[in-house]
Amino acid sequence: MGVIFALGYLCRKDIRYAIALHMANNLLAFLLLILLR
């Protein structure tokens, strides 16, 4: 997964894009934990 974030950074040359991807991933995992409980 870190490779995907690194590629996002390399393509956009902006760390905020990688941070946004990481936040979206964490949000998705959190929502799935709640919904599949």
TrEMBL record:
<keyword id="KW-1133">Transmembrane helix</keyword>
<keyword id="KW-0812">Transmembrane</keyword>
<protein>
    <recommendedName>
        <fullName>CPBP family intramembrane metalloprotease</fullName>
    </recommendedName>
</protein>
<keyword id="KW-0472">Membrane</keyword>
<feature type="transmembrane region" description="Helical">
    <location>
        <begin position="15"/>
        <end position="36"/>
    </location>
</feature>
